[in-house]
Inverse folding.
């Protein structure tokens, strides 16, 4: 709402009705006062003329347009039906000037004072607009500060979570670094849970030139994931033969993975180069599935392969 609307809503021909009503009431009161106590000539010979009152009040309160309207009303109230006789020997031009003196001064004063009022209104409107902009900036800054605080809290939680994950991962790795293959298999589940936090994952080992599932965690009875991949399957060729890590985010890998998972990679020993099997993740939360998870999956595949290869080598050496 602007300054003009605050001072009066209804308008008539672009002029606020309240200003016209005030001018008419004051003029009417002054005319009645003159009829009751004065000479009845509408204060024609009084100086300064009382009709200055409505002109100045309306112009100062409402602006130039309403002030000019009040001046016109005052001029009409003064002259309509109240023209004095021309003086003996008075020049017609002097007569007109004498009659127009007060109306002309009223119009000039209304214009000057009203324009000052209008200028003040414009400055007020400008200040209101600036105040609104300042409030908008304040709200944006407050919102940005809240988002920054939330991001800071999230970052702190992530850092704390990563510290806990590193500690848990260290504890889980100790369970994998065992001398027996059976002990390694037991520790793999905890290692994968700690490193990736998947909902469903599985471990496949090579047996007679095919991949067989030896560990499946999170699988539901109604899940129909493939448990054996032969040499003719695309999964076997890409993961085992080509030693590729597959990710569902890649359109090429999507064809190979199908509905069997979102990540798959070979388990091989970095020390001997022996391929042992495959680690596969079937499901995980979208928040957890990112580039960090993909890289962590690669590291886990190598880690598990090296630990399993060492345990198998130790078992073979002790069995001789």
């Amino acid at each position: 709402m602007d300054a003009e609307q605050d001072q009066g809503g209804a308008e008539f021909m672009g002029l606020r009705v309240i200003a016209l009503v005030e001018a008419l009431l004051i003029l009417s009161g002054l005319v009645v006062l003159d009829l009751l106590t004065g000479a009845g000539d509408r204060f024609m010979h009084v100086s300064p003329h009382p009709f200055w009152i409505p002109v100045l009040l309306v112009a100062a309160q409402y602006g130039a347009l309403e002030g000019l309207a009040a001046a016109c009303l005052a001029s009409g109230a003064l002259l309509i039906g109240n023209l004095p006789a021309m003086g003996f020997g008075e020049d017609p031009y002097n007569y007109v000037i004498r009659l127009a003196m007060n109306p002309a001064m009223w119009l000039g004063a209304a214009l000057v004072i009203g324009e000052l009022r209008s200028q003040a209104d414009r400055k007020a409107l400008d200040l209101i607009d600036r105040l609104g902009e300042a409030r908008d900036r304040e709200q944006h800054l407050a919102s940005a500060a809240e988002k920054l605080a939330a991001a800071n809290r999230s970052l702190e939680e992530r850092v704390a979570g990563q510290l806990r994950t590193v500690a848990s991962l260290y504890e889980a790795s100790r369970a994998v670094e065992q001398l027996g293959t059976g002990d390694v298999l037991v520790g793999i589940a905890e290692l994968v849970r700690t490193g990736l936090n998947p909902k469903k994952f599985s471990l496949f080992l090579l047996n007679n030139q095919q991949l067989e599932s030896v560990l499946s965690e999170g699988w539901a009875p109604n899940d129909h994931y493939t448990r054996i991949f032969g040499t003719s399957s695309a999964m076997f060729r890409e993961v085992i033969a080509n030693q590729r890590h597959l990710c569902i985010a890649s359109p090429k890998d999507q064809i190979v993975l199908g509905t069997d998972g979102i990540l798959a990679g070979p388990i091989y020993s970095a020390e001997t180069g022996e391929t042992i099997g495959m680690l596969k993740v079937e499901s995980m939360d979208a928040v957890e599935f990112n580039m960090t998870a993909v890289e962590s999956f690669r590291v886990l595949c190598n880690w598990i392969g090296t630990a399993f290869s060492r345990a198998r080598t130790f078992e073979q050496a002790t069995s001789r």
About this structure: The longest strand covers residues 275-283. The beta strands are 11-12, 15-16, 200-206, 211-217, 228-229, 246-247, 263-268, 275-283.
